[in-house]
Specification:
The protein is mainly α and 86 residues long. Helices cover 58% and strands 0% of the residues.
Length: 86
């Protein structure tokens, strides 16, 4: 899943909202259908731990990538913010 810069900006704005205005379902297990949780668990169990085809592709093309460390850090931080919303 790719997270755009616009999505990162929205997450930062959302996380900066006052506690009483930011919607949250954390701790609200009554809002989540248990059947959905079980279905998601089943799908997650079926996923491979490592996607071998991606590893092979990246190893073969590693020389092509020249990404500044700042860009990598920005994406890592953006992904961390995005994961907070899940």
């Amino acid at each position: 899943m790719k997270i755009s810069d616009d999505q990162i900006a929205k997450v930062i704005k959302y996380l900066g909202a006052a506690d009483d205005t930011a919607p949250s379902v954390y701790g609200r297990h009554d809002l989540i259908d248990p059947r959905l949780v079980e279905e998601v668990k089943r799908h997650l169990r079926d996923l491979p731990d490592v996607r071998e085809e991606r590893v092979r592709f990246l190893r073969a093309n590693l020389h092509v990538y020249d990404v500044p460390p700042e860009a990598i850090a920005q994406k890592i931080i953006g992904r961390a913010f995005g994961d907070q919303l899940r």
